[in-house]
Amino acid sequence: MDPFSAEGELLTLYNAFHQGQYAAALDFDTSSLSKSNLTPARILKLRAQIASGDAQGALASIQKENGPDFTAVQALAQYTLGDTSTATEQVDNLVETASDNATVQILCGTILQGIGRTEEALSLLSKHQGNLEAITLTTQIHLSQNRTDLALKEVSAARKWAQDNLLVNIAEAWVGMRVGGESYQSAFYVFEELAQTPSTTAPKSLISQSIAELHLGRLPEAEAALNQALEKEPRDIEAVANAVVLGTIMGKIAEVEERIAELKGRGHLLLEDLEERGKAFDAAAARYAARAA
Question: Which of 27, 34, 134, 291 could form a disulfide with 128 if both were Cys (CB 3.0 to 4.6 A apart)?
Answer without folding.
Answer: 134
